[in-house]
Amino acid sequence: MKLKVWSQEGKVVGEVELDKKIFDGNINYSLIHQAVVTYLANQRRGLASVKTRGEVRGSGRKPWRQKGTGRARVGSIRSPLWRGGGVIFGPKVRDYSKKFPQRMKNMALKSALNAKLKSNQIMIAKDINIDEPKTKKAVEVLRNLKLNGERVRIVKEKIDKNLKLALRNLEKVELEKADALTTYTVLDCKKLIITEESLKKIEERLRRWIS
């Protein structure tokens, strides 16, 4: 399968042949789901923590005698029923991370790329570079490619400083290195812009995991 190659001026400057072994149209939705769940779980830090009655500061002395006062019996001022007491079954520091085999991770990425291709949401760019770190310049490139208002992810082999600074004020545009591309980041955009060099890098990365 061939895709048009666009210049950042918005003109077709050629075609690129996609690797048939990678862009074969096969989509494993179950694998994609596992990859996304694992990715999101690994972003969680799990630092929320509350104190139990044994950790709350305060005396362990019984506030008043058990019987004869007319009040309810109490054993400690650190009781979870009291203001300032401990918390029952509250969150504690924990690790949410999940393990996901490297082969499965790459096969999920392959499926995600095929899903994007099937939805006509992949665009190949010759390259995207700007000479000044100005948002106006970045907006002009997106306008040339008719991408205004869409959630866009630009994938490059190397990220240059000017482009990074120019895009940082654009809410719906993300910049990512080809090496760092994941199933989640592929799916988390309306349009995936991949430069020619990045496409070669991605295909080379996935080719090793295809039996």
Describe this structure in words.
31% of the residues lie in helices and 14% in strands. By secondary structure, the protein is α/β, with parallel strands linked by helices. It folds into two domains: 2-44 and 97-207, Ribosomal protein L4/L1 (Ribosomal Protein L4, Chain: A); 46-95, no CATH class. It has a six-stranded mixed sheet with strand order 2-1-3-6-4-5. Helix 1 crosses helix 2 (102-118). The radius of gyration is 27 Å and the shape is elongated. The mean pLDDT is 92.
CATH topology of the largest domain: Ribosomal Protein L4, Chain: A
Indicate the radius of gyration in whole angstroms: 27 Å
Shape: elongated
CATH C-level category of the largest domain: Alpha Beta
Number of domains: 2
Number of helices: 6
Low-confidence segments, ≥5 residues, pLDDT <50? Answer: none
Count of distinct strands: 6
Q: How far is it from the N-terminal to the C-terminal residue, by CA?
A: 20 Å
The helical percent reads 25-40%
Strand order of the largest sheet: 2-1-3-6-4-5
Q: Provide the structure class.
A: alpha/beta
Give the averaged pLDDT, no decimals: 92
Give the SSE string.
EEHHEHEHEHEH
The CATH superfamily of the largest domain is known as Ribosomal protein L4/L1
CATH architecture of the largest domain: 3-Layer(aba) Sandwich
The largest pleated sheet is described as: 6 strands, mixed
Explain briefly what this protein structure is.
With 211 residues, this protein is an alpha/beta fold. It has six helices and six strands.
